[in-house]
């Protein structure tokens, strides 16, 4: 783990020395984590160009999924023939995932200054997970927080729509296993709870050159 921290710090210190024009990407997509329900993911990628093809960036992502355990209480027969059903929620789970990445990105145009280009990226970062449980029967609630290192790889295509804006679609894979409750068990062995939030996804977005930090 310490080697990942060193690599991230080196990239963060060296890349700004050669950075040029800023850009910002706004993204929305769909991801299927191993230990959570598939759902939507939203992201913002803030970067700077190093040369005409290579850039570095910091990416913030947000995922939220709600799952409810619902039971059927009763059914009503109305004179009109409509049959409504009474429903109750016993337990509700809310999962929030926030992956943060420091990335290197590559874009290459197809043909001679054509509007279509190939793009890819690789990044290292940190993942955080909050899992909140509400039990309406026992009137109790609990929150579990997990965190740990992660990595991301993407590949996709883009289309230039103006002198400063591009549309794109990316396939991606986020790899991360987050932990909590690290301790020594009764036998004196190191122990912890682990959650695998790795998964494939796809997303679309727009990149605006000259807008950012």
Question: Secondary-structure blueprint of this entry?
Answer:
Layout: H1 2-14, E1 22-31, E2 39-49, E3 54-75, E4 85-109, E5 116-135, E6 140-160, E7 165-184, E8 190-196, E9 199-209
Antiparallel strand pairs: 1-2, 1-9, 2-3, 3-4, 4-5, 5-6, 6-7, 7-8, 7-9
Give an overview of the whole structure.
- With 213 residues, the chain is mainly β.
- It has 1 helix and 9 strands, in the order H-E-E-E-E-E-E-E-E-E.
- Strands 1-2-3-4-5-6-7-9 form an 8-stranded antiparallel beta barrel.
- A hairpin with a 4-residue loop joins strand 2 and strand 3 (54-75).
- It is flat.
Query: In order across it, which strands form the biggest sheet?
Result: 1-2-3-4-5-6-7-9
Number of helices: 1
**Share of β-strand residues:** over 45%
Shape: flat
Would you report the number of β strands?
A: 9
Structural class: mainly beta
- Helix-strand sequence: HEEEEEEEEE
Helical content stands at: under 10%
Residue stretches low in confidence (pLDDT < 50, at least 5 long) are none
Distance between the termini: 29 Å
What is the mean pLDDT?
Answer: 87
Report the C-alpha radius of gyration, rounded. Answer: 22 Å
Largest sheet properties: 8 strands, antiparallel, barrel
């Amino acid at each position: 783990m310490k080697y990942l921290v060193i690599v991230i710090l080196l990239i963060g210190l060296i890349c700004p020395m050669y950075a040029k024009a800023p850009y910002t990407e706004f993204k929305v997509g769909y991801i299927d984590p191993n230990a959570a329900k598939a759902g939507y993911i939203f992201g913002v990628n803030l970067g700077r160009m190093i040369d005409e093809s290579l850039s570095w960036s910091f990416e913030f992502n947000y995922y939220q999924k709600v799952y409810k355990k619902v039971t059927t209480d009763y059914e009503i027969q109305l004179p009109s023939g409509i049959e409504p059903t009474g429903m109750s929620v016993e337990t509700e789970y809310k999962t929030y995932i926030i992956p943060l990445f420091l990335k290197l990105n590559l874009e290459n145009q197809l043909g001679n200054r054509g509007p279509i280009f190939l793009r890819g990226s690789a990044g290292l970062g940190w993942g955080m997970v909050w899992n909140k449980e509400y039990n309406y029967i026992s009137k109790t609630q609990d929150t579990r927080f997990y965190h740990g290192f992660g990595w991301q790889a993407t590949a996709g295509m883009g289309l230039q729509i103006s002198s400063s804006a591009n549309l794109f679609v990316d396939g991606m894979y986020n790899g991360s296993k987050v932990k909590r409750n690290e301790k020594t068990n009764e036998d004196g062995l190191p122990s912890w709870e682990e959650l695998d939030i790795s998964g494939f996804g796809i997303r679309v977005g727009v990149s605006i050159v000259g807008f950012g930090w």
